[in-house]
Amino acid sequence: MSKYKTIRWEKPKLSYLLEHKTLWTTLILLLLCIAGAILSTGIGSQFISPVEVVKSLIGKGSAMHEVIVLKLRLPRIVVAILVGAALASAGAVLQGLIRNPLASPDVTGITEGASLGTVLFLFLLGGHVSVHWMPVASIFGAYAVTVILYLLSWKNGASPLRMVLIGTGLSAAFKSISYMFIIASPYFLADRAMTFMTGSIYGSSWEKDVYTLLPWLIVLLPATWLMARHVNVQALGDDVAGSTGASVQRQRLILLLLSVSLAGAAIAVGGAIAFVGLMAPHMARKLVGSSFGGLLPVSALIGAVILLVSDLVARTVFAPLDIPAGVFTAAIGAPFFLYMLYRHRNQ
Amino acid sequence: MSMLEAKGISLSYGGSNIFEHLNIAIPDGKITVLIGSNGCGKSTLLRALSKLLKPASGEVTLNGKDLSSIPAKTAAKQLSLLPQGPVAPEGLTVLQLVKQGRYPYQSWLQQWSKEDEESVQAALRATGIEELAERSVASLSGGQRQRAWIAMTLAQQTGIILLDEPTTYLDLTHQIEVLDLLQEMNERDGRTIVMVLHDINLACRYADHIAAVKNGAIYAQGAPSDIVNASMIEEVFHLKCDVIQDPLYETPMIVPHGRKKTK
């Protein structure tokens, strides 16, 4: 079996089967992501060559370049990577969990829940409470919608099909409520809420955004990866999974919470950026198949690259206008979604 | 005493009783086939025997112990179930599918031990699908696909295998192929096999023990030649028939009456 690499150690006792294709794909995407980040950091109102960017990163660039690179541009690049990776991972988990290739945080109402949380925060508390609490409102909204989703889907266990149908309904309902508040709110609040609901990483900073998101991902991504074999066995159906000794319902709840936390944290920082959670896992599946141990890192990297490129396009093509990145993920995502529906039309 | 036994189990679903105080002892190392008309509760019985459904009262015992008190993974090393018409996710390869059968033996750190590899190879060999290991499950023919799923349950290395209609959706050639394979598993490794089958003639050929389920109770059970006769078929299936001898296997063979020909 030359297509695989078997890892077996005696101390500590551990063993894995890795596919060469997955290893190479992950490595290439990682390099692509790093190259994209360096290039994108250099592009802006003042162009900085990739070599100069790298020099600044290792503290050997000119003082001016270091300010532009480290203070102004890099936080936004890092946020794009983190938010993209988090949304894609959340989508990959949901698609495995719900066993539906069209599942994503957008479809199950998680994104809309987070949006409503934020809109309510702006509408009810705006001006009274520091905006640093906004991410809390967003994550709270994501959890709230998940609790409702879970309770309504429960009938001797939460079935995937019911979760999709109820999620779609909740998504529409929450979106309507958000718009209701936006219409009723003063202009400056409405403007901010709309930007959030489109999704933008404009003006990201180390303190406010990167350090808010990074701890979440450091905990959540490895935890999700460790759940890979549970996702794999769940994908075979509840009866098969149950027959192999898996605690189907308990693992489903844990995975759902991981997914919501990933999506909620990403949305709190980047706003309701659409379609990344749908597209990235799909492309990943085409590249490395559906085995979750490989699918998760590849999805995360693809998600990072998608958002990196979308944000680059959004802030440069129409300069000096800074268009929200969510506009561009939607511009690629919507046709992609239609293409998927077209391809699955006979199933 | 047999390994797997249901003692006075009752199960209801949506308010109506599916069965009440049902007793059945699955003979060890034999092939047991559950037959009965649609909706008689035979699939439910199979699920109850496999720990997927907990009976409302009574108990299912595995080696004399209450199955519901045995941890899921421990039970999964002794007993596996292949449900009816399972569906593999898009892009999953045969090897990845069969590997899942090792789930109860794996942990965070141990995901491809030597035993895992050997069991998976043995399962692929036993089902004759070694060359298909890299193919996606979706691209296989119906018979090959069913063999891949059976390979997965074999990789689980259990003494007892329960199968819910393993021949549904297969043409006759592949039905025979799958049943021959299961018989071979039974004869060579002494595995206990319990399955639901719709075809009574095939059930008589392959079963050592037949249990006919009617209205949520075991109507009759025993060796095919002892219990399959015209009056039993009429009682269980509401079907008039003649019973003759299978010229090849010498097991009972039913010839159903129809609108144009009755006796």
UniProtKB/TrEMBL annotation, chain A:
CDD domains: TM_ABC_iron-siderophores_like
Lineage of producing organism: Bacteria, Bacillati, Bacillota, Bacilli, Bacillales
Homology family: Belongs to the binding-protein-dependent transport system permease family. FecCD subfamily.
Chief location bin: membrane
Single GO MF annotation: transmembrane transporter activity
UniProt protein name: Iron complex transport system permease protein
Any Pfam family hit: FecCD
GO-annotated cellular components: plasma membrane
Subcellular location field: Cell membrane
Species of origin: Paenibacillus catalpae
Keywords recorded for this protein, A-Z: Cell membrane, Membrane, Transmembrane, Transmembrane helix, Transport
Membrane disposition: Multi-pass membrane protein
An annotated GO BP: siderophore-iron import into cell
InterPro entries to which the protein is assigned, alphabetical: ABC_BtuC-like, ABC_transptr_permease_BtuC
Signal peptide limits: none
Residues annotated as transmembrane: 21-43, 77-98, 110-127, 133-152, 164-190, 210-228, 253-280, 292-314, 321-342
TrEMBL record, chain B:
Taxonomic superkingdom: Bacteria
Membrane topology field: Peripheral membrane protein
Residues annotated as domain ABC transporter: 4-240
Main location group: membrane
GO BP term, pick one: iron ion transport
Keyword tags: ATP-binding, Cell membrane, Ion transport, Iron, Iron transport, Membrane, Nucleotide-binding, Transport
Stored Pfam families: ABC_tran
GO MF annotations, alphabetized: ATP binding; ATP hydrolysis activity
Location in or out of the cell: Cell membrane
InterPro entries listed in its UniProt record: AAA+_ATPase, ABC_transporter-like_ATP-bd, ABC_transporter-like_CS, P-loop_NTPase, Siderophore_ABC-ATPase
A GO cellular component entry from the record: plasma membrane
PANTHER family per UniProt: IRON(3+)-HYDROXAMATE IMPORT ATP-BINDING PROTEIN FHUC
Protein name in UniProt: Iron complex transport system ATP-binding protein
Organism field: Paenibacillus catalpae
